[in-house]
Structure formats: C-alpha cells, structure tokens
Amino acid sequence: MSLTLNNFIQLENFGHSLRAPSYRFRPTRAEEIYDVFCLARKTGLTVAARGAGRSYNDAALNGGGIILDLSAMNQILEWDPASGVVRCEPGVTLEKLWQCVEPSGWWPPVVSGTMKTTLGGCLAANIHGKNNFQKGPIGEHVREFTAMLPTGKLVTCTPEKNADLFYAMISGLGMLGIFTSITMQMKRLHSGLMSVDARPVRNLNEHLHDLLENAPHYDYIVGWLDTTAGGKNIGRGQIHAANNLKEGEDPNPKQTMRLENQTLPPRIFGVFPKSMLHYFMSPFMINIGAWGVNTAKYVASLRTHTFRQSHAAFHFLLDYVPNWELSYGRGGLIQYQSFLPKETAEKTWHEMIDLSIRRGLPSYLGVTKRHRPDKFLLTHAVDGFSLAMDFKVTDSRRAKLSRLLQEFDRIVLNAGGRFYFAKNSETSAESARAFLGEPTLLKFKDLKKRCDPDNLLESDLFRRVFE
Ligand SMILES: Cc1cc2nc3c(=O)[nH]c(=O)nc-3n(C[C@H](O)[C@H](O)[C@H](O)COP(=O)(O)OP(=O)(O)OC[C@H]3O[C@@H](n4cnc5c(N)ncnc54)[C@H](O)[C@@H]3O)c2cc1C
Fold this sequence. Notes:
There is one protein chain. It is built from 15 helices and 21 strands. It has helices at residues 30-43, 94-101, 119-125, 132-135, 163-169, 204-214, 253-256, 277-281, 287-300, 311-315, 345-358, 398-414, 429-436, 438-451, 460-465, and strands at 8-12, 19-25, 47-50, 66-69, 76-80, 85-88, 106-107, 142-148, 154-157, 178-185, 187-188, 193-201, 220-225, 237-244, 267-268, 272-273, 305-310, 333-341, 365-371, 384-392, 418-419. It is α+β, with helices and mostly antiparallel strands. The chain starts with 7 loop residues before the first strand and ends with a helix. Flavin-adenine dinucleotide binds at residues 14, 48-55, 59-60, 70, 90, 112-114, 117-118, 120-122, 124-125, 127-129, 173-174, 178-179, 318, 422, 459.
C-alpha cells in the first residue's frame, strides 16, 4: 500500500508537559507497519512506536517524525484458560487482558499502576509492579514475542531463541523493532480478593525498613511517601502490603472473580461522578495545598488495619480518578523515579527530599517500591528500592525544576542508583552512560546497527539519551 504524509497532529506525554507534532499512522496489521517503514525511508523521516502514550516522558514522542500508533492492533489472538497462556497483539491494554483472564481465575503476572497501558508499551519499557522484588519485570513472564525489524524482517524471540534480541527488545524502548505479537504466562488466582495490610511509618528509616523486612512475607508491597514533610518527618507515609488469597480462603471464589466485582466504581461516595473529580483537585495543586492534602492523608493513615480488596482496586488505584493528571494545570506534571541500592537509599532520598523542599519545589506525590535486579539489557532495577516523585510543571518552575532534577541525577549516580526510561524526562546521555555502563551501551548500539541499519527507529527520548 502506498501511504502519504497527511496526518500531522500534536501529541503529548502522559503528564501533558511535553508536546511533539508528528505524522501519525495507526496500522491494523503487521504488513501496514512495513508500509510505514517504506514511507519513512522514502521521506527521510524517523519512526517511533506508541502504545497508549502513558509514558510520563518523551519515550513515545517523535517531534517532526512519524508516530506508529499500535493501539488498533488490539486483538487477543489466543487464550487458554487451562494453562493460563495468552497470545496478544501489542495494542492490547492491561485492562482488556485482565478482563479476559480474571473470570477464569488468572491475573497478569506484572501490572503497572494504571490499566490503560498496552502490552507493547509495557514490554518496551519492561514495566515493574508492586511485586518486582518477587516476580521481576514483565519481561520475565514473556514466553515468546514476534517483532518486525525496520528491514521488514519478522523475528521470533524467546529466552532461548534469539536470546540477545529477547533481552534487548524487552526494555529496548521500541528502538530495535516493533512487537507484533506477545505470548505470556498468566498467574493463578484462587479468589477475586486480596488481603491487604495497611500501616503507618513515621520516617524514612521506618519506611525502608518495613519494605525490606516485610516484602518476603507478601506477594505485593508498596509505600505512599509524604514528599511534602521535611525535618524529622522526612519519609513518613503508609505501607500497603497484600497477599493473594490462598485456595480455600475465599468461600465463594467464582463470585468474587466475576467482572462486576472487580470494576472500579464510577462514583465517589455513590453519588459524585469521578470524571469531575480532577476539577476539584486542581485548587490543591500548589505547594501549600499539596502539603495540606499529604498531611491529612498521613493523619488518616495512622490506624493499622487489614481489609480485603479486589485485584483491580488494589493494583489500579491511579485509575480511580480519570484524568487526574489534568488537575496539575496547563503545564502538566513530570515524574522522577530513582532506583537505589538498599545500602544507600535512606541517606540519598533524605538529601533529595530535603533539597526539593528547601528549593520550594516539593513533589506532590511519592510512591516507594521494593526491587530486585534483572538481566534485561536496559534494566532500571536494583537490589533496593525505588521512589517515584511527581512534580508540577509551570512556566515559572520549569527551569528551576530542570536544574533540581539534574542535581538529583548526580546525587543518585553517586549513590550507585539507576533511572527508568518510561518516567524521567531529564536523564542526559552522560547520566545514562554512567548508570548503564559502556559495555551495555556498546551492545545496544551493535544490536541497533544489526536490526535497524538505517536508524529509522528514533524517538525524542532516543535522541536525548543515546545519541
Ligand atoms: C498512572 C501511571 C502509572 C504507572 N505505573 C507504572 C508502574 O507501576 N510500573 C511501571 O513500570 N510503569 C508504570 N507506568 C509507566 C508505564 O507503564 C510505561 O510508560 C508504559 O511503557 C506505558 O505503556 P504505553 O502502552 O502507554 O506505551 P507508550 O507510552 O505509548 O510507549 C512506551 C514505549 O514503548 C514503545 N512501544 C510502544 N508500543 C510498542 C510496540 N508495539 N513495539 C515496540 N515498542 C513499542 C514506545 O516507542 C515507547 O518507547 C505508569 C504510567 C502511568 C501513566
């Protein structure tokens, strides 16, 4: 098929803080991906893949180039409820996937904090969940994938076959090829409910100690961290740790696994439409408002308790308020997620949180997780923890924020930390080289030459970090 360049549109990152005009194509079949590569070659443009555009940064943006939007390749091709193995097109969202497998007693082994992401995007970033310390990133649950290289060649990869490509394309940010089908193993469930323990932590030492000591006793663990609290309160927050119910613990698993018992309620307190909520959050998205909300949340979380919650409610808390990112206003938000070894995390985050508060640029939301290393090429994980911090962007804050985050990069690198390419927007080529190491970069560049000899696949992130 012969394509023409007539669909120029403005695309944004998830946080609406970055914009990139691009030509967008939305293939429905693998052959159409090849047509887009041919057009790119003919016009001298570059191509970047995009799933649901849920990356916080420029990973799925390609200013002045072509965006290959995979969201229409969204069919579940095969599903075997006996073995829990599923084969999907790359545009299948986690939402579509869990809704397909959950009623038969399965759940995706690794999910992001939103269900709107696509499998292609999740593999390209190699996402982690609240169970990263146990189950590793999503790539560890992929049995096989097929990808189209810019040469038009289709490659099939497993941990054994084309293993170098398997471990590089998963985590490779769509820079080596485009996933066209993905086969994954789901995880067995014995109930539609989870048992969740909630408890407060008074400071960073208690916070990280809880994650470290308690993670082995749970399937999932995550912390909320009040990034507006300074001094001796730095690191205070709440831990949520959860276990899947074991066989026999739920008297009626068929009932709790029904989809209507999983979907998130459309209204708050039964009356207030959630879709309106972000308007009411907006006035609180200033330093003093965020401090008030975080303080109130901390006070409300002082009670230690245990409760049962559906899988969807536990995993996709961030989907409770649709379009919550719009509450940050016109300039949007960016996220900064650092991964630190367990030995250096406390001192390092203490310094970073303190610095952000002193500069008048506190993060409005902080989330912590426990991690373990993995063997994917562009891995972000460590034997330690991560802290994700959300920052409001405005015209007057943008330059100051950028300087703060570059300072953060130096602090994190000195502490042996790493960064995540689906989140951070400031990581420079120097920082990437420092944490990935020269041998990893050379290996990535070698594979890039092999898979994409004409450098067709490029995103704004690629140009920022790898060129
Ligand atoms: C509210 C929220 C919560 C989140 N929680 C988490 C979390 O808990 N853990 C976590 O790890 N991440 C999390 N993320 C980040 C998110 O999971 C990743 O950014 C993910 O990559 C987004 O998927 P997507 O489909 O939107 O991909 P996009 O953002 O559209 O693209 C991401 C990358 O994938 C590439 N890509 C997309 N499709 C393909 C394809 N078919 N073939 C090759 N490359 C492709 C793109 O080029 C780009 O580099 C969260 C994001 C949000 C907005």
